[in-house]
Write a sequence for this structure.
């Protein structure tokens, strides 16, 4: 299924092709603080519009790269630390998905 999403101020928009089969919440020091439910996909499943409005953050291992809107600060997606071809997309950016109703798996990336 194709989903459309955006940050809060709509400076960054995206299209995601996903069956939502891998929904996780991560316990790493960064993800724990943002409490996002994310869907794991391959990089080619995501098309970003407004890339010039994205900023990124890396910490500790400098492998995972977290991308957020530099205008409103909303986390949009991450390049995954343990899968260089994978990304994690913030489901809270997709209006047609109720993140409070959707189940997620626990991703123990803190102890890897």
């Amino acid at each position: 299924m194709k989903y459309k999403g955006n940050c809060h101020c709509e400076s960054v928009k995206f299209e995601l092709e996903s069956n939502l089969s891998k929904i996780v919440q991560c316990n790493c020091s960064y993800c724990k603080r943002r409490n996002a439910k994310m869907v794991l996909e391959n990089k080619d499943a995501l098309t970003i519009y407004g890339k010039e409005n994205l900023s990124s953050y890396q910490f500790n291992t400098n492998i995972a790269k977290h991308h957020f809107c530099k205008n409103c600060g909303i986390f949009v997606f991450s390049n995954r630390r343990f899968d260089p071809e994978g990304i994690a997309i913030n489901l809270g950016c997709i209006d047609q998905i109720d993140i409070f109703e959707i189940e997620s798996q626990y991703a123990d990336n803190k102890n890897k």
Summary: The chain has a mean pLDDT of 89. The CA atoms of residues 3 and 96 lie 8 Å apart. The two ends are 31 Å apart (CA to CA). The domain at 2-107 is CATH 2.170.150.70 (Metal Binding Protein, Guanine Nucleotide Exchange Factor; Chain A).
